Protein 1
Amino acid sequence: MNSLTARKSEPQRGANDQPRVPAGTRVYAIGDIHGRLDLLLPLLAHIKADNGAREAAEAHVVMLGDLVDRGPYSAETVEFVISALPTFATFHILMGNHEESMLRALDPADDQTGNLWLKFGGYETLASYGVPVSLLGGEDLPAADVLAQYVPMRHRAYLKGLGDTARFGDYLFVHAGIRPGIPIDAQDQVDMHWIRRDFLDHKGDLGAYVVHGHTISSTPDMQANRIGIDTGAYRSGTLTALGLEGDSRWLIKASVIDGEVQTKLSTVG
C-alpha cells in the first residue's frame, strides 16, 4: 500500500467516543476536486484564514483524490498542486480512481481494454491539456504515445507518486474507502480507489474512522464509522472541506451562488 501516513501518538477511544486527531494537530480534508480549480482556490483561502484564526497547531491538508476529469481545469489543477500550493500547512495529495485511469491511458504498455476514461471524464481532462478535438471524437482512447505529447512528463511523474492513505490519530483518509474485515495495512489498492457498496453499507468498526470521497452526496454523508465529503463539485458547484481538531469537526464549503464563488463555515456534531 502506497501510504502518506502521518502518525503521532494515537489516542485510545471507547465505542461511544468521538474520533480524535492527536493533540497539537489540525487537519483539513478536501473532497473530489475534478478540475474545479475555480472552487479550490477560494476554498483554500478560507481554510488558510480559518487555520490562522485558531490556536497555533501543526496544520495538514489532505486532498482525497480525483483532482482531474469532468470539470474544466484539470491540467491547471495538477500544475497548481505541483508548483503553487500555499505554505501554511503540509499537504497530502491522495490518488483517486480518475488519476489511476488517466495514468493507464498514458501508459503505452497498459492494456486499454475496458479503460473507459475518455467517457467518464478523460475528454475534459485531455481538452484542458490542449489535445485537439479531432483526436477525441471517436469512441476509443487515442494512442498513449500521442496523448503523452500533450501531458507533461512532470505531471505524469507527480501523479504516479501519489499515495493512497493518510492517517492522523483515529482518522484514516482514503479516496473511495476500504474493505471491511481487512487490516488497514493489508488493503488492496483497487478497493482504496474504487470500492463502493461493500464499504458504504458496512455499519461496524473499520479499524479507523474513515474520511473519503468518490461517492457523491448532496451533503456530507456522516455515519458512525465514516464520513464522505464528495459533494459533486464538477456538477453541483460545491466543493467541501472537513476540518478536524481534537474531537471537534467543522465544514467549509466553496459554492457558486448567483455566478460568484462564496465560502461558508459550519459546525458539525
Note: DSSP finds nine helices and eleven strands in the chain.
Protein 2
Amino acid sequence: MNLVIPEKLAPKRRRSWLPRAWRTPLALVGTVIALVWILVAILAPWIAPHDPLAQDLPRLAAPSGDAIMGTDVNGRDVFSRLLLGAQTTIPLALMLVVCAMVVGTIVGAVAGYLGGWVDEVLMRITDMVMAFPTVILAMVIAASLGPSIMNAVIAGIIVAWPPYARITRSLVLGLRTQNYVVAGRLLGSSPLRSLARDVLPNIAGPVLVLASLDIGTAILLLSGLSFLGLGAQPPTPEWGTMIAAAMQNTSAWWLGLFPGLAILSIVMAFNFIGDSLRDALDPLAAREREAEAPTAVSAAAATGQAA
C-alpha cells in the first residue's frame, strides 16, 4: 500500500543563502580571519594600546601585561606596531592586486580579441616579463626606483600583471567566435563595445579567482621587499620590517614570531577564500573533484587489501 503524503505535510528542505562552496570549514575560517584582519586594518589607530612610534617602554621586554607581545629594541610596543602594520600592508596588497588585474586584463583582452600583430606584440612583452623570476625582477625594479613602500607596490604591479594577461587572452580566444559575440558584431557593435559588453563579463570568474589567490602572494611580496630594505622604511610599522629587525635580536623570540604569524594567517585566509571562490564560480569542477575523492580512497583501500 502506497501512502501519498500531501505536499503541505511533506518536510521541506531548508535552502541556505550561502552557496555550497562557501559552507565548507576552510571557506568559513578563511572568511572570518580575513574580515578580522580587515577590521583591524581599519580600526588600528583606535584599538592600538600604545603609540607605535613612541619609545617609552622598557627595551626588549618579554610579553607581559603592559605589552602583551613584548617590546622591540627601541622600547616600542610590538602589538601596537603589528596592528598598524596591518593598516600598511593589507590595503597596499589589495591595491597591488587590483591594479595588476586591471592592467593584465586589458592587455590580454585586447590581444585575444584583435589578434594578429597586436596579439604578437603584447604577448611577447608579456613573455619577456614572465621570463624573469618574479621576486628578482621586483627587487631590481624597487631598487631602481628607490626604497619606499609605494615603489615596492609599483614593482609588484609590474611583475604581477602577466598571468592575468595570459589567462584573459586564452579565455577571450575561446569566446570571440561564440554566436552571441559574432551576432553583436554583425548588428553593428564596435570591437571595443563588443569586448566590454559581450566578452569581459563572461571571463570575470576565473580572473577574480586568480586575484583572490594573488592577495596572499602580494602580501608576501611586499613584506619580502620590506624585509630586504626595499619597501617600507623605519620607523614605519610594517610586518616585513619588523621581521628584519628581529633578525638582529634573535634571542628576543617575540619580535619575529608575531609578525610571522600575522603574515601566515592572512595569506592562508585569502588562499582559502580563493579556493572557495573557484568552487563557487565553477561548480562542475568542484563536483568532479568531489567525485574523484571517493574513487581515490576506494582505490587506496583496494590496494591495501591486496597487499
Note: The chain has a mean pLDDT of 83.
Protein 3
Amino acid sequence: MTAEPLNWGARCFVVIKVLLAEDMHMVRGALVALLNMESDIEVVAQVAAGDQILPTAKSVRPDVAVIDIDLPGKDGLTAAMELRESLPGCHTLILTSLGRPGTVRRALDAKVNGFMLKDAPSDRLANAVRSVAIGRRVIDSELALAAWETDDCPLTTREVEILRVTARGRTVADIAAELFLSPGTVRNYLAAIVTKLNARNRVHAIRIATEAEWL
C-alpha cells in the first residue's frame, strides 16, 4: 500500500489515498465530502468517465479506487480490471444503485475487492474503503450467495460492454467511436453475442441478457 504516514500531534496516521469515479456531479460531490471527513482518508482525484480512471490512477497512484459501475466512456468493471493489471497495488471498490445478482456476479468475476450499494449507510463506505485498502473483500453476503446461484454468463467482459452500449440505442459507428474499435470489429462482436445467446437478433440478445441480469 502506498499510503503515507502523517504526523498529527503525537500520533501517526496512515492516510488512504482514494480515486473516485462517478459521472453524476452531485453524487460525486457528496461522496468526496463524506470521505474527506475521515481523518485517515483523502480523495486525491475524481473523474466522471471510465476511460479517465487508468491514466488518472497512474498519475496519482491511489490506494483505493471507488468506482461507479455504470460510467460513460468505459464501464466501471472494465476499468477495475485494467487497474488490477496495470496497478495491482490499487484496490477497487465498486458502487452501484442496483444490487442484482447478475451484476454482483460480474463484479466477482472481475475480482474487485469490494461491491457496495450506493444507498448503504455512509459510515459503511468509509469502513469499506479501509478494508479494501488492506486487501480484504467487502461484499454483502446475501448478494454474494445470490450471485453464485445465477447462471454463468456466456459472454466475455468486452461482449457485455458492447451489448450494454447497444442497449442504450447507440449505432455501430457510435459504439466503435466510444470503445475505440473499428465498426467491423463491433459487428463481429454483435454477431458473436447473438450466436452465443441463441438470439434471433440484437434486440432479442439484449432482452435475454437483461432478463438474466448480465447487463
Note: The chain has ten helices and seven strands.
